[in-house]
Specification:
The chain has 382 residues and is α/β, with parallel strands linked by helices. It contains ten helices and 15 strands. It has a seven-stranded mixed beta sheet. It has a four-stranded antiparallel beta sheet with strand order 10-12-8-13, with helices on one face. A hairpin with a 3-residue loop joins β1 and β2. α1 packs across α4 and α6 packs antiparallel against α7. The longest helix is centred in the C-terminal third of the chain and has 20 residues.
Length: 382
């Protein structure tokens, strides 16, 4: 066993305790003030040059080696979810209505201790290591805040990680390529003309507009070789009186695609469905807001292979690439900033699953994730 892995095994108790402390004190996206302050101070103790308040709460650590090499980045997200924890764990959230239900506390813990393991076993010798503690993955915007800052313009490669459930990776297993879909959420409005229910011909029913839009959206098709979906998820219209033809309605639409080109095509079709569907019944349909994240564009020929080698060194085998319809703003780094990337899945038996009030991790996953990330960093900059 390597000295790097022996160091991790000797610090398992400390790793678990740090995780529990982060789990007990969750913070929502762009509100990770205490989490960011803790991580920034830990980076300073390790000798990193630290920049804080990126996008409000983001933290960047930089350490340069004496020998030439690439600029390699490692990323963990920090934010929690607006949920009331119901696990009954002794280290359950102490913040009412806020819970680390997606494992971001474990990501911060694993990244932090991979750095400690690296620096205890030779440190950064080549190139530059950049550490990204990113805010607001759940509400989107955190990765784009780092891109906008210009502080990672020189990064050649970036690796992220996420704990996974047993359906993808069991405890003791890991995958070097979690390939998320592009995920977009759209809000639309329909404007009609109010009228009395006895004389509907005097108005234009906004609900008719919604119905026409839904019909159009359900008829949207993309390339059948690429997994994708378009569906309405929310509709609000009408008033307390049942005899009024509503002149206004709003709706939400969820769009997903395994590739970015198909997503671009789908968004154009959704816009046309909104405008044309409403117009067909005398209303006006407007797409007023859209936000989302791109599909994964992983570096399968380079960094993914390197991550697979580290996983094999730790776990003895490698789980094949996983393609998931879920979204993840990590992929902005590749799709929008052109950085070569890999996204590692760490098997952690998430119980009832992410984004549930009873989700809890198998703590045995923590040192495994630390070893994988530390081994990869050592190969890149050690």
């Amino acid at each position: 066993m390597s000295a790097l892995f022996q160091w991790v095994d000797a610090h398992v108790g400390e790793i678990e305790e740090t995780y529990k402390q982060l789990h007990m004190h969750p913070e929502l996206g762009f509100e990770e003030v205490k989490t960011a302050a803790f991580l920034a101070e830990e980076l300073r103790k390790l000798g990193f040059e630290v920049t804080e308040k990126i996008g409000g709460t983001g933290v960047l650590g930089v350490m340069k080696g004496k020998e030439p090499g690439i600029t390699f980045a490692m990323r963990a997200d920090m934010d929690a979810l607006p949920m009331q924890e119901e696990t009954g764990l002794p280290y359950a959230s102490k913040v009412p209505g806020v819970m680390h239900a997606c494992g971001h506390d474990s990501h911060c813990t694993m990244l932090l201790y991979s750095l400690k393991a690296l620096l205890a076993n030779g440190g950064v010798k080549r190139g530059t290591l950049k550490v990204v503690f990113q805010p607001a993955e759940e509400v989107l915007g955190g990765s784009r805040a780092f891109i906008k800052s210009g502080l990672i313009d020189d990064v050649d490669e970036i690796v992220g990680m996420h704990v996974r459930n047993n359906t993808e990776c069991k405890v003791g297993e890991a995958c070097p390529a979690i390939s998320h879909a592009s995920s977009w959420r759209i809000k639309a409005e329909v404007h009609g003309k109010a009228a009395h229910g006895a004389w509907p011909h005097n108005g234009f029913n906004a609900l008719d507009g919604i119905a026409a839009i839904i019909g159009n959206i359900n008829a949207i098709h993309g390339d059948p070789r690429v997994a994708h979906s378009v569906k309405c998820t929310r509709c609000v219209a009408g008033s307390s009186a049942t005899n009024i033809i509503p002149d206004f309605a709003e709706m939400s639409i969820d769009v997903r695609s395994q590739t970015n080109p198909v997503m671009k095509e789908l968004l154009g079709k959704v816009k046309a469905a909104i405008e044309n569907g409403a117009a067909g019944v005398g209303c006006k349909g407007v797409m007023i807001d859209e936000d989302g994240v791109p599909a994964a564009e992983l570096d399968f020929d380079g960094l993914v292979k390197d991550a697979a080698a580290s996983i094999e060194a730790v776990c003895g085998s490698v789980v094949p690439p996983v393609f998931t319809p879920g979204g993840e703003d990590f992929h902005c780094f590749a799709a929008e900033a052109g950085i070569k990337s890999a996204f590692i899945g760490i098997g952690a038996d998430m119980g009832t699953g992410g984004h549930t009030t009873t989700m809890q991790l198998d703590l045995r996953a923590l040192p495994i994730g630390v070893k994988i990330m530390a081994d990869l960093a050592q190969k890149k900059v050690g």
